[in-house]
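Quick board copy: two proteins, each given as sequence then tokens.
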Amino acid sequence: MLEKTVQILRSLEVLRKRGFIHPLRLAADAHSAKIAAHCGPFPAMISYTARYSPDRQALVDARGTLSYGALERQSNALARGLSAAGIGPGDTAAVLARDHRGAVTTMIAAGKLGVRLVIMNTGFAGPQLREVAEREGVTVLFHDDEFASATTALPDTVARLRTWSDKPWVTGGSPTVESLIAGNATGPLPLPAESGGLVLLTSGTTGTPKGAVRKRISPLQSAQLLDRVPLTRGGAMVVAAPLFHATGLGQFTLAMALGKTVVFGRGKFDAEATLASVARHRADTLILVPTMLGRILDLGPEVLARHDVSSLRIIASGGSAISPGLSARTAAAFGDVLYNNYGATEVAAVSVATPAELRRAPGTVGRPPVGVRVALFGPDGTRISEPETPGIIFVANGLSFGGYTDGRDKDRYDGMISTGDIGHFDRSGLLFLDGRGDDMIVSGGENVYPAEVENLLADRDDIADAAVIGVDDPDFGQRLRAFVVARPGVELDADEIRGYVKSQLARYKVPRDVLIVGEIPRNGSGKIVRGRLAELAVKSA
């Protein structure tokens, strides 16, 4: 009991320090907590800032700016329009959209109606969209015109509403969000009896993404996302990571709660355009995934120097691992501003590495924030306490999910949930990732984690990207196969690469095969799609 009380007090202090709660607005804070309990996080965060700073810019997209007050009013009007169309508690709404006002207004309105929300990956083709929609019981789909062809895979029983039209002057087709907003009252709505919940999808690198549902989220739990990353009230945040990914969505939600101006790009990620947005809006925070960060750095010193990004205090990266080399390159280009966030869809935040920790131990994922407990266990359930000893990472976290929507679950032990990752602590207590448990291979009796070889290869100046997988071997059971992408104007030599790995790592970690390819398949969060690599390996064997 005492430990829980201390944790609550620590969380409250973090929220106060970051400006998330205000000692003179405790009644408003309590009201926001009530809205969060009934509507979920999005309506709660928006309403708080709209109450005290209605004219503050909430977001910037391709159509201009939108204030907090306007976002609150438009989401109220949209909720009424949806209700009049027969959409309400018991329905499940899916959003298949880029990051913009149409998508954000839809997410808020769904919460205000008590509708369950599923945020779809914009990389879905028709068959994958249909499979996920059927499993989640989607009754209405909100989509951009860009994805209209994919929506034809859904049955006619799923209603369609358009969140963004590239040709708004063209009439016909499904109703638009704007048409449902028009003419409806903009005042507050009564709270639904309960929250519909939010379904986040896993990355799906090995198959169809699973749905991880979160029913209730307490504002107090936001402390874990703010404890080790010094976000503060006001300022501007450029969100390059997509909202369908937990990194983008979580940081966007915090930004709304802190009254920040969120700046979205339009369409697919553009490295230089992202830098230009940081400079134009004097953003103090940039949210992205490691592959995006790598592409920005690959622009080179001359392009980087064109944009004044001296306002940046935080580059928060998540979604996949940051190699030691990428961490060092970021510090050299932008200073000590990189925060390496380690988390998972199922457990939310696990740990955060600060710039000082990354300087001291490049590649670390840092330490757990307030409210999060991390432990390592062996395959037999024995807890591992010795430093430098790898084990399965288990997490206890108030934001953890209750299980997948298809009834499956992650391994649980002693009140903790497995991330499926293998990691170790160093002697100072910093956490490091060794790789995914599913990715580990046994070659000649030795356990090998491909991530170690991937980082070594990716940090070479002549290699733009790299991936390593295990393939069957008649003599050793399994062996490593590497895929590398050359930087422009560079010719790679497979034998030289093998020799380089041999000079740096143990013999059993040297890839037998090195394939030079044009691209490493990755999903929207930057994770390697190893199933597609395995297909390449079969074709090349």
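And the next:
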Amino acid sequence: MMTREQHSVLDPAAPDGAPPQRADPVPRRRPARRWSVPLLVFLLLAQMAFAMVTTAVRQTPTIDEPVYVGTAADYLHAHEVRYNPEHPPLGKLVIAAGVALAGPHVDPSFEGDQGALGRHLLYESGNDPWWLMLWARLPVIVLTLLFGLVVFAFARDLAGPAGAVVALALYAFSPDLIAHGSLATLDVPAAGFLLTSVWLVWRARRRPRLHVPLAGAALGAALATKMSALPALPVLMALAAVSVWCAVPGERRGRLLRAAAGAGVVALAAVAVVWATYLAVDPRLRWSPQQPVPAVHGLRGLLVHLMPFPEAYRDGMRVQFALENYPWQGFLFGRLYTGSLWYYLPAALLVKTPLGLLALWTAGAVTLVAVRRLRPAAPYLLVPSGVLLAAAMDGSRDFGTRYVVFLPMFLAVAAGCVLTVRRRWAPVVTGVLALFVAVSSLLAFPYYLPYSNEAFGGPDRTHLRLHDSNVDWGQDLGRLADRLRERYPGERVWLVYKGSGVPSYYGIEASDPREVPAAEVRGLLVVSDSAVAKAQGRFRELIAASRPVDEVGHSITIYRR
């Protein structure tokens, strides 16, 4: 009989029928070093927590956050799904945990759309928006840290403790994960639940009865957070079938039936979690939308109609399809365009990912395919992320790398596997690249949202190549107020701000330069960098005739006229 410790170092992906193969030898650790890995895990997550909390404290509401925070508060007080149907409730219920602790005053007589709902809660109901936003962001920060433990555990299963520490380090220093993990938004929670589901499906190769239902529940949590996780459903079902097939001995027909049952359990558990999420908001499942729900026809309409989800979920899908049909504007490498570019996300990732991380992601993907012992794990990490990346690239909204924020999670696990390569240079090169990632991330502090790597000039040059949530999501309105008060007291201010904040709340008294003749615009012209990127006509001429004198948070430019 093998001891548990002996079994833990066996290859979980040994071919069916083959004798268990021992993974790379794991040397006995000296007693004095037993604390080293837990200490490193603690330090990495502690620095990530510090970066996220520090960022959350200083940033004003981004464009999407008031909608989610307002909807979360409405869940707590109305106990009904009324706003923001295009995103299911679970992520907003996570945010609601912080909102409940903040205890804001909610106006039950409010009538308006979901955008006005958030602004009314933050700025017109007697609440402190700084305090409320911090509490709304804290649950997402905690969830982001917990997903770091999933990255560590997944990488440890594949590459041992050293590879797990490397994977966690790449996760904890990822500028995109720090930036979006510190916001009361849904991108990081959805991505983290997907990674958790994939990890549990991988572990089902040993204990399918335990891990297959849990994998389905984690997948359901992702589906109940963002509908963009739907393309992962058939992928996870297929992977669950593979895991059950590998785990269950016996004749071919019996294994095939059990594999199909495993895929079915994942689907049923996922659907059950989605229903449970809506029931948690309103046990009566009332659905009274506060905005028109567009009609969807053809194949899409049929698919939405057949979905085994609550009516509110299906109407949310209809809203998403309508948004996909809208002619959005994009901005890439100085070019303003209407529509979408299939290569937008790869190009944006090239700009916004640390160079060392790009190298380790590539090396990790190659390692998964090239190293025989790791090859069975390759479909679990590369296929879901590839399918989701392809779905995101096919979308119509070229707004930022947050749409593929799952990549820094999945590929961090893959990168940790580089240490399994039996070459003397592997640990040295991996360590140097990981250190390069850490330094690049630390130098960006606390401006993680507009981060770009050194090859593209760093955060202060990102606005020349990208826009929207890559750079300027309305997060620096408070910093702008401080800058105007400290350096430009008493000066006339003209403002074009892209965001959900209310400038007057922060003491910014300004006029819109687009509403008066250009000759009257004198003093300070303050423009969000996303508005600069999309400027056309007279407004573009106005900016061109102005002299830049200052910048705020790498997202707002101050001009002198």
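Board note added afterward: The first strand starts at residue 329 and ends at 332.
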